[in-house]
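2024-03-11 09:14:02 DEBUG pipeline.ingest accepted 1 chain
2024-03-11 09:14:02 DEBUG pipeline.ingest length=107
2024-03-11 09:14:03 DEBUG pipeline.predict start
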Amino acid sequence: MDLTDEQWLLIAPLLPPPSPARRGRPTLDTRRILNGIFWKLATHSPWYDMPPHYPSHQSCYRFYHQWRSSGLFKKILVSFYWIFVNVVVWIYPVFSAAVLLLWIIAR
């Protein structure tokens, strides 16, 4: 369920840069945070059931809430949508024609 390297390369420019070095806690890896958020959304599990290889559920929830409030999470989801559309439309034209036909019929 984790992001592939190709997906991360497309998403990373959308994310804010890590804060400069400062005192206190070290900065968290945004890729691991995003993987944790996607795990939670895919499994519909409570935040506190997050597996230990992701950051804490409090951190993932905090970033999810900040990104959702600022509209950043919507941009991430839209970029994934366009990746999917481009793959379906340009690489699988027969499949995309069938999907388009079903969509037209369903309307």
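2024-03-11 09:14:41 DEBUG pipeline.report The chain has a mean pLDDT of 80.
2024-03-11 09:14:41 DEBUG pipeline.predict end
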